[in-house]
Design brief:
Length: about 150
């Protein structure tokens, strides 16, 4: 399956990607290191949200009357809630659910991270000052401002 930025990443790997900047724009290693750091933090957050979505989808008891005989609307409602959180094998499951939508976001962030890594590799191969700064920052990168939502579920 092709990823959203696969062609651009391939161009960067082959050395065929080029961009034009005005003379006022200066590329610096800081931005590349921080972009990679924040992509990793964002991926962690997306994965955490996916775990929460699947916990909701697989929740055993909802307390909406779904186990009450004759109250079919309650079990129908629970089924819809489950299928909107993630695929659980129900006939109402579709790709339009939180877990799958988050996966699309995850794939895009992976591509953005990988693209920036490839571009940084090219700069490091041709610019010793950039490479030194990139390696220095990578060894001591401060934590991301993206915070964990762990425990919110």
């Amino acid at each position: 399956m092709a990823t959203p930025l696969e062609n651009i990443i391939q161009e960067a790997q082959n050395g065929d990607l080029s961009v034009s900047f005005s003379t006022d724009v200066r590329v610096n290693a800081d931005e590349f290191v921080y972009m990679e750091r924040d992509c990793e933090a964002f991926l962690d957050e997306i994965e955490n949200l996916q775990r929460q979505a699947m916990a909701i989808a697989n929740r055993e008891k909802w307390g909406l009357g779904e186990t009450t005989p004759g109250l079919t609307s309650a079990s129908t409602l629970v089924g819809r809630f489950r299928s909107k959180a993630g695929k659980v094998g129900s006939t109402s499951d579709s790709d339009n659910n939180l877990n799958d939508i988050l996966q699309q976001h995850h794939d895009i962030v992976v591509d953005i991270r990988d693209l920036h890594r490839e571009i940084a590799k090219r700069y490091m191969a041709t610019d010793q000052e950039f490479a030194a700064r990139y390696n220095e920052l990578s060894a001591n990168v401060p934590p991301s401002a993206i915070t964990s939502t762990e425990g919110l579920a």
